[in-house]
Predict the 3D structure of the following.
Amino acid sequence: MTRDALANKIARRIRAEGPLSLAAYMAIALHDPELGYYATRRPLGGAGDFVTAPEISQLFGELIGLWCVVVWEQIGRPDPVIVAELGPGSGMLAGDLLRAAAAVPEFRRAMRLYLVEASPVLREEQRRRLAFAEPVWLNRVAELPAGPALIVGNEFLDALPIRQLVRGNSHWAERMVALDRADRLVFADGPENPALSLLAPEALRDPAEPGAVFELCPSALALGTVLGARLARDPGAVLLIDYGHSPSRLGASLRALSHHHPADPLASPGSADLSAHVDFAAFADAARAAGAEAYGPVPQGRFLDALDISARLAALSGRATPAQRRQLETGVERLLDPAQMGDLFKAVALVSPRLPTPIGFEPAGAPW
């Protein structure tokens, strides 16, 4: 297949059906079964397109594992208990989580590991790293079996397809992906439509100036509804860490990354990662409407501090070589530093009704 094979496939669809919504374009670019980004590429690490927290420091996944242990205690130590990761990437977070879980043998024996992963490339990498844990792979969250569950995810929500609404002179329009006269993929705004204003929060509709952009993520709202309903039915909790904002706000955040550098989102679909900032307020509202309680978001740095990452760092550093100690310290600094990942990334938790405030979300992370 040539580098432009997916662009040609998208162009043929546009010629046959008309311009695509940005969400439809992102879904194809990321998940086309033959040519999509996640079907053909290993995105993570120095040789990939981006690096996530589990690759930066083992302490990240270990602390999430200990967070799961605490919540497991709060829900009555069920056996068995589902531990599921959404978008497990290289499998490093799950591996570090399992290592921390081994410190509590009862929890480790009770847990059943599920991985929600659509990418065949990443599934193979996860299989090599996590075969000892006998995970079960699923394509969708809705496929998780019933029962008590602890669900975690890092940089999962930001990869879900978004729609962009653009304020026109009188009403909102939807930003589409179309073809120009040279058959190149371009952004084009559709017709203004009064009904589109209902998709934006009321506080943002009328004050918006022409050209203002509002992003919404239908997949994130659907996921929040599914998770909220599950937590209302079965005891458990969800912990998601990502970059984004709360409350909802105007602004375009779609970006493409290729080999750790910004790229044109339309230039070569399937060859670059596409993502957008998470609207945590909208996601949490959807989960709460379905029956869960929502906490956060709190900055990643504050969340990890509350889990006592410094004590864990000191324990590991005490038996590390000088080179290993420097690597551990550099990784933790990157996770905590407000100028790096500490403020940009945020944690949000969903829990079953009447459960205590989850660790890491007190007192500033009180429920909304």
